[in-house]
């Protein structure tokens, strides 16, 4: 146990003096963008939206159908031309026939339907599909901001625990020096021997806290690796480290937040859908065509043969070309109801856009105000910490001279520990506010550049 504590103290001191450079936040983000599987899922969503767009256009392409029928049937009825659809059986023959009562039939046909006049429905469907693709890409942007926020939060917490670990190590060194002084004074009979036990107890308390902080720092490494698949190196601590250096005011061009863009995209999609519903009251005009190849075992003289080979003895070929219009009058009523519903949805969307804009603006103003207060608080806590350092040095000198008791010195040391911890917490709060502001502004580049 003691060897582990000594090793940890030595490591902290070495790292504090060497200032080992940890991974940059920008580097971790680049690794996260390459590794984290959540981005692959969003890429697939964009591809699916593109496939849906392609599928939506298929109905405007020519519909081609073909069929081949060969079978045995009875023959009765009257002659006449016909063009049955696939799957429809048509049995027709002359009235006065001789020979067999049944014969083989052959029928081969192909039909075509093609929308030649859709009154702009095709273009609107393409535009609606494009908005779905744009929506999927905006979802990618929102997801990217969420991951950037997660990564930045974990990185800042890692730097915080690294810095806190070094500061606890320094405090442990101070407590160890107090213990050494106390033992010397106890041997000289200047202080009670119990003071050595009190100093040793205080040292062990700080050492225990140091081990807990080190455990949290190690745990944060795994959370960073979950996103970036990168092993974290020890961070460079000290007053000049990025964690202990404020960013200061930085003018950046405010971008429209992806959440607001998604609302705007929803409005565009609803507007297109409203126009699309208005076109549904118009008819569908189609070009129609068909070819048929027909024969049977019935000769031109009206003799019916039951032999299969006679089905190929006489063929009749026909064609059909025309224009057809389909108009569902019920669409006149349904389209009106649908458009009224979409109009209400558009109105709700405009209200939601206004609410979201006000919410984003208010949050940014709130965070900026809190950041200004946080900067002033850091300056005040720095002054408080410096005064606590000076007080501890004076009290330790007086303790060495036997002018004050150990409990007085330990009380000052505890105040110093508290002020230093509050100073670090002020920096942590500052960076947490900065991360939130970066998310609200949809721009993490200034934060990445700082670290």
TrEMBL record:
A single MF term (Gene Ontology): porin activity
Subcellular location: Cell outer membrane
Top-rank lineage group of the source organism: Bacteria
Keyword tags: Cell outer membrane, Membrane, Signal, Transmembrane, Transmembrane beta strand, Transport
Family annotation (InterPro entries): OMP_efflux (IPR003423), TolC-like (IPR051906)
Primary localisation category: membrane
Cited PANTHER family: OUTER MEMBRANE PROTEIN TOLC (PTHR30026)
UniProt-recorded name of the protein: Outer membrane protein TolC
Species in which this protein is naturally found: Sphingobacterium lactis
């Amino acid at each position: 146990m003691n060897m582990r504590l000594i090793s940890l103290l030595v490591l902290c001191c070495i790292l504090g003096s060497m200032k080992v450079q940890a991974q940059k936040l920008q580097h971790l983000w680049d690794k996260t963008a390459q590794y984290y599987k959540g981005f692959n899922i969003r890429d697939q969503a964009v591809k699916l939206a593109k496939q849906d767009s392609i599928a939506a256009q298929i109905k405007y392409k020519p519909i081609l159908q073909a069929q081949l029928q060969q079978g045995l049937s009875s023959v009765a009825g009257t002659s006449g031309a016909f063009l049955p659809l696939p799957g429809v059986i048509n049995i027709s023959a002359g009235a006065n026939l001789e020979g067999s009562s049944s014969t083989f039939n052959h029928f081969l046909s192909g039909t075509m339907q093609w929308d030649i006049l859709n009154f702009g429905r095709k273009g609107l469907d393409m535009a609606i599909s494009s908005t779905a693709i744009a929506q999927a890409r905006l979802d990618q942007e929102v997801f990217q901001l969420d991951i950037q926020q997660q990564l930045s939060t974990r990185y800042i917490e890692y730097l915080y625990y690294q810095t806190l670990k070094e500061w606890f190590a320094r405090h442990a060194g101070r407590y160890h020096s107090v213990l050494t002084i106390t033992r010397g004074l106890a041997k000289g009979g200047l202080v009670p021997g119990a003071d050595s036990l009190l100093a040793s107890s205080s040292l062990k308390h700080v050492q225990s806290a140091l081990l807990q902080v080190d455990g949290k720092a190690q745990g944060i490494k795994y959370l960073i690796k979950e996103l970036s698949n990168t092993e974290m190196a020890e961070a460079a601590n000290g007053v000049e480290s990025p964690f202990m250096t404020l960013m200061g005011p930085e003018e950046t061009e405010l971008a429209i937040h992806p959440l607001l863009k998604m609302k705007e995209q929803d409005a565009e999609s609803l507007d297109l859908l409203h126009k699309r519903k208005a076109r549904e009251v118009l008819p569908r005009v189609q070009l129609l065509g068909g070819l048929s190849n027909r024969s049977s075992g019935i000769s031109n003289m009206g003799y019916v043969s039951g032999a299969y080979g006679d089905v190929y003895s006489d063929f009749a070929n026909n064609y059909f070309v025309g224009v057809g219009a389909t108009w569902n009058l019920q669409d006149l009523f349904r389209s009106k109801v649908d458009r009224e519903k979409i109009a209400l949805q558009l109105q709700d969307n405009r209200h939601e856009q206004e609410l979201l804009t006000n919410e984003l603006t208010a949050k940014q103003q709130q965070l900026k105000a809190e950041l200004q207060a946080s900067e002033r608080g850091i300056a005040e806590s720095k002054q408080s910490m410096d005064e606590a350092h000076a007080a501890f040095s004076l009290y330790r000198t007086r303790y060495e001279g036997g002018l004050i008791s150990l409990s007085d010195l330990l009380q000052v040391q505890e105040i110093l520990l508290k002020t230093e911890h509050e100073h670090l917490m002020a920096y942590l709060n500052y960076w947490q506010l900065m991360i939130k502001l970066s998310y609200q502004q949809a721009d993490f580049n200034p934060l990445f550049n700082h670290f």
